TrEMBL record:
GO CC annotation terms, alphabetical: BORC complex
Pfam families listed in its UniProt record: KxDL (PF10241)
Boundaries of every KxDL domain copy: 19-95
Organism: Absidia glauca
Protein name: KxDL domain-containing protein
Upper taxonomic lineage: Eukaryota, Fungi, Fungi incertae sedis, Mucoromycota, Mucoromycotina
InterPro entries hit by this protein: KXD1-like, KxDL_dom
Amino acid sequence: MNLPQTIGHHLTELDQQEKDAATMIKTQDQCLDLYQTSQKNLIAFNNFSKARYDQVHGHFESHTKLLRQVKVNLDNVFIKLRKTKALLERKYPDEMKKALEKHPPIVVEDD
């Protein structure tokens, strides 16, 4: 190769390298835009999820509190029923035997 051809060849390579660099920069910019868009979407989704979680958590806590109150009330009712039954058994043992024979207690199997 002579000097003009060598210089021309190097200039062509430089031009190609500049085009390659420009292509890489353009691709990197597109990737950056995609990343930023994805990040914005994820932030929005996380904020939405947090708001929904806080709302559902509030409902869950209130329902849990209600269930605890219902359990306490039911426990009190069953305590009163057991006391009343025990009192009736002491006062009227014969009648209680007849009632239990006629209406035996229901057996409930645990899960």
